[in-house]
Amino acid sequence: MLKTLREQYIAGKEQERAIRAERWAQEKQWREEDRAAQLKAQKDNSIDVTQHAETMRTAAGVSYLTLVCHEDTWTLIAIEAFSFWRPHWDNSELNKGCGPGSHSEYCRIVPDPNLRRGRITKLESGMQSVVLSGHNLVRILDALSKGTTSDNLAHAGCCKTLYTKLAGFVAQVDPSLPAGQSTGIEYRIDDSVRPESGLE
After folding, report:
1. DSSP per-residue string spanning 60-88
2. Using CA atoms in the order 171, 163, 51, 60, what is the torsion angle rounded to 10 degrees?
3. What Rg, from alpha-carbon coordinates, does the chain have?
4. Which residues are CB-neighbours of 56 under 8 A, at least 6 positions away?
5. Which of 74, 139, 76, 88 shows the shortest CA–CA distance to 112?
6. What are phi and psi of 2, to 5 degrees?
7. Rounded (5°) CA angle 11-15-21
8. pLDDT tens digits, residue range 64-97?
9. Whether 65 contacts 132, CB under 8 Å
10. This prediction's pTM
11. Which of 90, 125, 137, 175 has its Cα between 20 and 30 A from that of 57?
């Protein structure tokens, strides 16, 4: 009887080891599949370096454009490019009281995007227009490009979409044309759904 119990105990332990090994192999496979999916998503979000350099060179020659988007979209862009922003802000003037040890929100904007009062206009339904210089545009594009490399796929995807939208504007710029013909063009980030989608 003791022999039978010993054999049952050994068989039980072997079965436990086999189950653990099978579970470990399955988890390893899942991790590898997740890693492969993550790498593919990161590759899909990446920006071509040569194209990015050309986009930056063209953007630097823009005098200004009026970007129209939701204030939350602008907040994401501004935080990415300028480090700190609040949705309700309509300018980026640093407080005159800024100095060593100051903890004011405005003092923490790095670097100052120079969006003074009047360059951001609040519109209806949370939309707003932002007057961006070519310098702002270059900084934003560069920051969004870096954001596409984030391990956080949601963040990287947002950066890729916004980068693509702004790069689409830059792609329409023709430096060979006489200067000033499109100064202050309005560019909207405002995707819509198809009417036949059934949404009411």
Report:
1. HT--EEEEEEEHHHHHHHHHHHHS---TT
2. 60
3. 26
4. 138, 141, 142
5. 139
6. -60, -35
7. 145
8. 899 999 999 999 999 999 888 888 888 887 655 5
9. yes
10. 0.75
11. 90
